[in-house]
Amino acid sequence: MPTAPWQGSGGFNVYSVEVEQALLQHPDVQDCAVVGLPDDKWGEKVVAVLQLHAGRSADPQEIQAFVKARIGSVKAPKLVETWSDLPRSKVGKVLKKDIRAEMLKRLSRAID
Fold first, then answer.
1. How far apart are alpha carbons 30 and 12 in whole angstroms?
2. φ and ψ at residue 6, rounded to 5 degrees
3. CATH-assigned architecture of domain 6-111
4. Predicted TM-score of the model (pTM)
């Protein structure tokens, strides 16, 4: 069963796992995490953090278009970042709370 959706992105429910599955279909994406961040227009915006396969690169706009073509524009990430590695638990699970906290910290610094 999918995790609970965000009640954001313009009032539409967005399941992070659905967006992640679309992202993982991209040949350059090794792993990813999708989180929601506060947004004045959308309530919460979809944000994707990618870990790419070694030696690969990806254009954020191309990634957004790739997801949009598969699951629609409302669910497509409004922001795409590439990190060299995603934070993980001792058993290898991606720590979305840590990713969201880091993104919120960056957002807070950008506003200050």
1. 27
2. -80, 145
3. 2-Layer Sandwich (3.30)
4. 0.88
- Say how many residues make up the chain: 112
Interior angle at CA 20, CA 41 and CA 8, nearest 5: 25
The residue with greater pLDDT, 82 or 14, is 82
Query: Cα(59)–Cα(67) distance, rounded to whole angstroms?
Result: 13
CB 28 within 8 A of CB 53: yes
Structure-block tokens of residue 6? 């965000």
CB 104 within 8 A of CB 37: yes
pLDDT band per the 50, 70, 90 thresholds, residue 95? very high
